[in-house]
Design a protein that fits this description.
It is a multi-pass membrane protein. It is built from 10 helices and 2 strands, in the order ααααααααααββ. By secondary structure, it is an all-alpha fold. The protein has 3 domains: 144 residues, no CATH class; 89 residues, Helix Hairpins (Orthogonal Bundle), CATH 1.10.287.70; 34 residues. The longest helix is centred in the first third of the chain and has 29 residues.
Amino acid sequence: MSHVKIEAELDRSKLGWFKRLRRRLRILYHSQAPAALRFQATVLLVDLAIIAFFVAAPVLRGQEAFLWIDYSVAALLFIELGARALASTDIPRWLRQLPVIVDIFILATLLAPTVFYNLGFLRILRLWTISQSSIVWRPLHKRKLGAYQETIQAVINLLVFIFVVTGFVYTAFVNQDSGIVGYVDALYFTVTAMTTTGFGDIVLPGTFGKLTAIVIMIIGISLFVRLAQLIFRPAKVHFPCPQCGLTKHDPDAVHCKACGHILNIPDEGR
């Protein structure tokens, strides 16, 4: 009987340690305490360093140390994903979120770089998954700069699109009578296609190349227009109307433009 009691106590102690770990991680990822904010800033810096590696990967791929860096990044991403999973209150639900699915796919490309060689350009989607995290936006809101969130998100979406398309063009059309002989050529073509400049010195061959250029132009122009709207239109504040629920209003609005209800928008300048 004493042996059974000892095993039960050990099980309870292990369970208590696991619960404490999850509680600690939840605080670090979601709290606004000074220690938690420092932890979140460190995680963000590590993520930005990983993204820098993804951007430079096509150039570094021929280096001897590339695989070591690749597996080191995979280890960091695995640890970070595990920590985020433990910090969540519902792990199965967390695993079904699109940013998490994308991160798991990116981890797979890192663990098997030769198998997923042609899909390596999708690793830059890590920048998009980071932009879906509150860790990025919490400092802005803390400094009352939340009005710039949509503009920054539009810039991130544009950058992600540029580098994803550049990687795809480089992977699919390099050395195929297109004029693309390096990663910079693919980046150059992507930007000229997005801006509809069309110098004509680099042209993707065949019907597939033409369809690719059409898609780049349509989506690229849409992202540029969206970014221009956010930059040049009057700034809006987020304040839900108590009556109709409209969330965006002019900073000096007194009445809701949808229902006319009187608003009491806090003045962040005070």
